[in-house]
Design a protein that fits this description.
The complex is a heterodimer of chains A (about 140) and B (about 140). Chain A is of the alpha+beta class. Chain A is built from four helices and five strands; from the N terminus they run βαβαβααββ. The two termini of chain B are about 20 Å apart. Classes of the chains: A alpha+beta (about 140), B alpha+beta (about 140).
């Protein structure tokens, strides 16, 4: 089977939706300081988002299959390590190790949950949209 | 340097299979995409070109010209076709999103004048897309 993938670097992105509750609040700040800093995002009962998570892998496609990755394997990893533990959950409850639960710290946590299980593939970028207005990217560095 | 992106859509059917392998082996490699009669997608194609705006026109490239280049060389050729059967290139090469992206890059690149091809991004579905930057 011939192919045109030889030494050509492609990027493959898979998009996932994650709905979860959280609230912002830092244990290093007083109630008053938290309220001033985080405003409505820090209200004690919390709130929720439809997060969009974009996982981008990079590399050359397999000469046999013409694919960079088997999407089923990637989906399984995301399902097991992110969706099942976190989708429709309260992130402050599930991720107690995060002292402050912002999209920044959440994104880094999601990366560390995925990276060990993405075998033989390079994660190029992990992107988290908290809302359509707020977008966070992590390149692993 | 300005980057300019034009979006185009085309709909096509394809199947991901390796001839000579059994149905079971093909399913192991390609999943549902290996079902022998094929299936289809509404592909969304984003082509990004880059260059300096022409001092006279203020444009990197005339968007109408870019649209014609994309359609004539790639999108119209693939639109409403069964890629494995109708497109000679994909008689031997499996039309994965990766390979279709490379095909589109190779088909468009030579026709651009006054600007350079920066990226081809091809959405197979809203949840899955491939990008190629010519690397």
């Amino acid at each position: 089977m011939s192919n045109i993938t030889e030494n050509r670097k492609v990027y493959l992105t898979r998009v996932y939706s994650l709905s979860a509750a959280h609230r912002l609040g830092s244990p290093y700040l007083s109630d008053e300081e938290n309220d001033k800093l985080y405003g409505k995002c820090g209200r004690s009962s919390g709130h929720g988002h439809n997060y969009t998570l974009k996982l981008t892998l990079s590399g050359t496609a397999d000469p046999l299959t013409g694919m960079l990755a088997d999407i089923r394997e990637i989906d399984d990893v995301v399902k097991k390590h992110i969706m099942e533990p976190l989708d429709h959950k309260n992130l402050n409850v599930e991720l107690k190790t995060l002292k402050v639960l912002t999209s920044e710290t959440l994104l880094a946590e999601l990366w560390s949950r995925l990276a060990p299980h993405i075998k033989n593939k390079k994660i190029h970028i992990l992107e988290l949209e908290e809302t359509r207005k707020n977008n966070f990217k992590y390149y692993g560095n | 340097m300005i980057h300019l992106t034009r979006k185009t859509e085309f709909s096509a059917s394809h199947v991901c299979r390796i001839a000579g392998l059994s149905d079971e082996e093909n399913f192991r490699l390609f999943g549902k995409s290996s079902y022998p009669n094929g299936h289809g997608h509404n592909y969304v194609l984003e082509v990004t070109v880059k260059g300096e705006p022409d001092p006279k026109t203020g444009m990197v490239i005339n968007l109408t010209d870019l649209d014609v280049i994309i359609k004539k060389n790639a999108a119209d050729i693939l639109d409403h076709r069964f890629l494995n059967i109708d497109i000679p290139h994909f008689k031997e090469i499996i039309p994965t999103t990766e390979n279709i992206s490379l095909f589109i890059w190779d088909s468009i690149k030579g026709s651009l004048k006054g600007c350079a091809l920066h990226m081809v991004r091809l959405y197979e579905t809203p949840e899955l897309y491939v990008e190629y930057y010519g690397e």
